[in-house]
Design goal:
Blueprint: E1 5-10, H1 21-41, E2 44-51, H2 56-65, H3 69-86, E3 93-96, H4 101-116, E4 120-130, E5 135-136, E6 142-145, E7 154-155, E8 172-176, E9 184-193, H5 199-207, H6 214-226, E10 231-232, E11 234-236, E12 254-256, H7 258-261, H8 264-276, H9 285-288, E13 293-300, H10 304-318, E14 329-330, E15 333-335, E16 343-344, H11 355-361, H12 364-373, E17 381-383, H13 385-414, H14 427-448, H15 452-473, H16 475-481, H17 483-504, H18 509-518
Parallel strand pairs: 1-2, 1-13, 2-3, 13-14, 15-17
Antiparallel strand pairs: 4-5, 4-9, 6-7, 6-8, 9-10, 11-12, 15-16
Helix pairs in contact: 2-3, 4-8, 5-6, 6-10, 12-13, 13-15, 13-17, 14-15, 14-17, 15-17, 16-17, 17-18
The structure holds zinc ion.
């Protein structure tokens, strides 16, 4: 079968902070699982991510930390990279919108093309102006009461409570976040993207994707029914990509709005990666302009508006790119502390668990496991540290780790550390081989549908069943009664563990790597299509290693850091 080709992206985090477990559960872990799975199948994949460096949030952090925005970019981008690496999340490239000249060029050319195609128009806009600071107040420079849901503390770009875009001049009781002054309304010129031009095409396009998650379809349908407002693509700001119209005095002092340039980063980073690989940057076209290549955007709930409506509309307006084929979005991950109600994870309230703090004390796999098992795939779920510890101990240690440990120690003690011969199969052996033989296909079907939780549940169910087989066959008794039957049992168990290693690798890459060493497997033996191929008899096994360590229930919540 011909290899399939995929461009897989994960949402670009602002480079003004580190990552917490909510970010990871939202899009980075599912994207990494999916990419590892595709690579194991032998598909061609470009796994693209990077930081969103422009815009108000970064400018505000720079202001707060007394640094230049570019310094803030570089500082946090490096830390984010370390968080991802520690968790085994391996992008082909983790760039940044302010770290490559290609991005500026791609964004400016994109703008000009959309302008040329008559989907941008200049309009005078009323905007909030801080008379004390002497500047306009784009986006998050202003806060007030949401005009959609009435929640307080809504930022000028989007309401965190209801997820809807905000029209800043409609905010109730608006305040400048720089001076606290009540802003006044002034006129300014901006370029508006005529989203209304794409209302019908977007509707048809979304209706044609029945396989998308319900949350994505329902949310976008609701917004389309309400009617999409035209949106400005420029800002009065000094931090961003300049509007590339040098001859137009109205463009002076304006930059591209960050929602416009950020997703173009997926494309410009791909071009940068092509160049890094020793190719030409233009090779990005086979990842973005070829209908044979599937484009998959992993995002969190807060990004659905941008990735399922604005970005596809931008691509339609530009005209030369392919549209995404899937937008797997997760809902938010809440957090629950002992004796407290479930609550939203918030960096400002200090109710987030930072990856840096977690990795300083624990291995990556238990967190990957737990986040995949409680994945908020179609509804919000809650992270509980005591639950992570409980599931680590009961499932990873007692089920999966125990199966591998007792099989390996038995083979080393009584089989001379070799893969024993498989003799005649009894009913129980055949049932076990059938069980594990079905597993790769079962997991594959779930992953092709982006059902990560269900795939991992199938793997753990098989591990549990295999422990039952071990207990039923009792190799420690067989050893003295019938050496050949005992050898067959251990052979079947080692083969099962190899299959488990292949299918668990996307979820638990560190543990899978240890199992591969224990079974002395070459990389090609661990490809998806080799998952059920038996181990060669007589092969020398590697040292037995501990896969997962038991964790203690912490006396209190660990490392609930305040930013
Ligand atoms: Zn709201």
């Amino acid at each position: 079968m011909a290899r399939r080709r995929f461009t897989v992206t994960a949402a670009l985090p602002y480079s003004n902070g580190r990552l917490h477990v909510g970010h990871i559960a939202g899009c980075y872990l599912p994207a990494d699982i999916y990419v590892r799975y595709l690579r194991s199948l032998g598909e061609e994949v470009a796994f693209i991510c990077g930081s969103d460096d422009y815009g108000v949030p970064v400018a505000l952090t720079a202001r707060k930390e007394g640094k230049s925005p570019a310094e803030v970019n570089d500082h946090y981008r490096a830390l984010q990279r370390a968080d991802f690496e520690g968790l085994g999340i391996e992008f082909d490239i983790y760039s940044g919108t302010n770290s490559t000249a290609l991005h500026k060029r791609f964004s400016q050319e994109f703008f000009l093309k959309v302008l040329q195609n008559a989907h941008l128009e200049k309009r005078s806009q009323e905007q909030l102006y801080d008379p004390e600071a002497g500047m306009f107040l784009p986006d998050r420079y202003v806060e007030g009461i949401c005009h959609c849901c009435g929640a307080p503390g809504a930022r000028g770009d989007q309401c965190e409570a209801c997820g809807r875009p905000i029209e800043p001049t409609l905010l109730g009781d608006p305040r400048s976040i720089i001076t606290g002054a009540r802003p006044e309304v002034r006129e300014t010129i901006h370029w508006f993207f005529r989203l209304t031009d794409f209302q019908d095409r977007l509707r048809q396009w979304i209706e044609s994707h029945e396989e998308w998650r319900r949350m994505v379809r329902n949310f976008t349908r609701g917004l389309l029914e309400a009617g999409l407002p035209d949106r400005p693509v420029t800002r009065d700001l000094d931090w961003g990509i300049p509007v590339p119209l040098e001859d137009d005095p109205d463009a002076a002092g304006k930059v591209l709005y960050v929602w416009f340039d950020a997703p173009i980063g997926y494309i410009s980073f791909t071009a940068q990666w092509c160049e890094q690989q020793g190719g030409h940057w233009r090779d990005y076209e086979r990842w973005w302009k070829d209908p044979e290549c599937k484009i998959v955007h992993f995002i969190g709930e807060d990004n659905v508006v941008f990735h399922a409506l604005m970005w596809p509309a931008m691509l339609m307006a530009e005209g030369s790119f392919e549209l995404p084929s899937q937008i797997p979005a997760n809902c938010f991950l809440n957090i629950q502390f002992p004796g407290e109600e479930e609550q939203k994870m918030s960096t400002s309230r200090g109710t987030a668990i930072w990856i840096q703090d977690y990795l300083a004390r624990y291995d990556a796999d238990p967190l990957r496991y737990y986040l995949a098992m409680i994945a908020p795939e179609d509804q919000r779920t809650a992270f509980r540290f005591d639950d992570l510890v409980r599931r680590n101990n009961a499932e990873l240690v007692a089920t999966l780790g125990n199966l591998v440990h007792r099989t390996m120690t038995f083979a080393h003690r009584f089989m001379q550390g070799l893969v024993p011969a498989r003799g005649e199969l009894a009913e129980a052996d055949r049932a076990q081989l059938e069980l594990v033989g079905r597993l790769p296909k079962e997991v594959c079907e779930q992953l092709e549908d982006y059902h990560f939780k269900a795939a991992l549940q199938a793997i753990m169910a098989a591990a549990k069943e295999t422990n039952r087989y071990f207990d039923y066959r009792k190799p420690w008794v067989l050893r003295k009664k019938d050496a050949a039957v005992c050898a067959t049992t251990i052979n079947v168990l080692l083969g099962t563990i190899k299959t488990l290693a292949v299918v668990m690798e996307p979820f638990l890459p560190f543990a899978a790597g240890k199992v591969a060493r224990m079974l002395s497997c070459e990389p090609q033996e661990l490809k998806w299509d080799a998952a059920t191929r038996p181990l060669p008899e007589g092969r020398r096994l590697g040292e037995a290693e501990i896969l997962f360590v038991k964790l203690d229930q912490p006396p209190e919540e660990p490392s609930v850091a305040v930013e």
